[in-house]
Amino acid sequence: MQFTRRSLLGVTAAAGVTGLATGCEPERRDAAGEVTATGAPAFDPASWESVQAQFALDRSRAHLATFVFAAHPAPVRAAVAAYRDGLDRDALGYLGTNEEQLDKGVLTAAAGHLDTRPDQIALTDSTTMGLGLLYTAVRLGPGEEVLTTEHDFYATHESLRLRAERDGVTVRRVRLYLDPAVTTVDEIVGNLAAAVTSRTRVVALTWVHSSTGVKLPVRQLAEAVRARSPQALVCVDGVHGFGAEAVTPAQLGCDVLVSGCHKWLLGPRGTGLVWGSALAWDRMTPVIPSFDRRSIGAWLYGGAGGRSTPGGPAHTPGGYHSFEHRWALAAAFEFHRRIGPERVAARTRELADRLKDGLAGIRGIRMVTPRSAELSAGIVCCDVTDVPVGEAVGRLAAAGVIASSTPYNPSYLRFGATIANSEAEVDAALRAVRGLV
């Protein structure tokens, strides 16, 4: 017998209460049937001006930090509002009636974006949650070790430190490059390969470094790792490539891809996912109980049915969530699908190149991010001579440009133009930077 949260809680659907037919229908749908917020202009995915108009950003400022924490486009805002209203009218009834269908919709949309199966995806609330689950879940035997890099973010380093403290696992770090602005594929691959040993079972990498903007050649790295340690899992924090690059896990060649969905995907805040290959999921033990029907059914009848729950559902934390945001994730994937992931990636590169070319021509600016698209994505980092990064961010904000600083030591001035941005906003940022030096 199959069980869901609805059957477990004894929820019975009221007549006529199904999906968005609860009276929560968004106020308008466009010609393609996509939900849009009241007052939002019609969406033409072929027009970048129309894409930009779907965001309710204050256009008196140039927002070049939306990749840090996304503004929602109109279809996502409308979906969040619809699901929120349904839950507010009858939280238990709406959840019981709609959860299974809407969760399935999210997983189907995510699988389409990643070109994979839905059961290979676990849903989370953030990249940090996904990394914590991953590095706690992966099984390691005596003498087996984890290799990561000096360039990874706190969330990876701290997840691994906690694992080492708890279980005595050996964690080593390697420096992949000395100067990010002039690094090469050969330098990066050579340094990682030299650090892999026969004891390496997990290699923890970040696709695009939020510290420097360097984009790793993940596929070449994965091949180098497997040549030296065939049993090693290549695990990738992919948040600053996910939604900015039109690349799937299979094309990356990794075993696990962890990402939040509220950065370059511009999806609902507080959403994320973990994709794992069948091999990777088989080498992990879930950390938080899943509410998948197979796991609940096994608990009810004391059997071992939960062991047959596929990797993605088995590793999706159960409990109650911010469901209106999770379910609206399908609208974010649909927004990107209608524009076209390849067009999104090309637009991101175009705006990043405009930023890099402009910054490189300003005296007193030292570029940190590589100029080559092979080793960079949407993040653009630079250093301003004789101006502390915090002061630079503040002065830019006063000039109407929202930038960010990298949360590392050393810290750099950081920009990122998403599909919510225009060429004019990039040019405004360049003018403001000229005023710093």
Q: Would you identify the CATH architecture of the largest domain?
A: 3-Layer(aba) Sandwich
C-alpha geometry? globular
Q: Quick one: biggest sheet?
A: 7 strands, mixed
CATH topology of the largest domain: Aspartate Aminotransferase, domain 2
Beta-strand percentage range: 5-15%
Helix content: 40-55%
Structural class assignment: alpha/beta
Number of domains: 2
In spatial order, strands of the major sheet run: 4-10-9-8-7-5-6
Identify the CATH class of the largest domain: Alpha Beta
Stretches with pLDDT under 50, minimum 5 residues? 13-35
Cα Rg = 22 Å
Query: Roughly what is the average pLDDT, rounded to an integer?
Result: 93
Number of strands: 15
Q: How many separate helices? A: 16
Structural summary, described in words:
This protein has 437 residues and is of the alpha/beta class. The protein folds into 2 domains: 118-336, Type I PLP-dependent aspartate aminotransferase-like (Major domain) (Aspartate Aminotransferase, domain 2); 341-434, Aspartate Aminotransferase, domain 1 (Alpha-Beta Complex). The protein is 41% helix and 14% strand. It has helices at 5-9, 48-53, 74-89, 91-114, 127-137, 154-167, 185-195, 218-228, 249-252, 278-282, 293-301, 311-314, 323-339, 341-360, 389-398, 423-434, and strands spanning 28-29, 35-36, 62-63, 121-124, 145-149, 170-174, 200-206, 233-237, 256-260, 272-276, 365-367, 379-384, 401-402, 404-405, 413-416. It has a 7-stranded mixed beta sheet with strand order 4-10-9-8-7-5-6, with helices on both faces. A hairpin with a 7-residue loop joins strand 14 and strand 15. Helix 14 (341-360) packs parallel to helix 16. The longest helix has 24 residues, at 91-114. It starts with a helix and ends with a helix. The model is unreliable at 13-35 (pLDDT under 50).
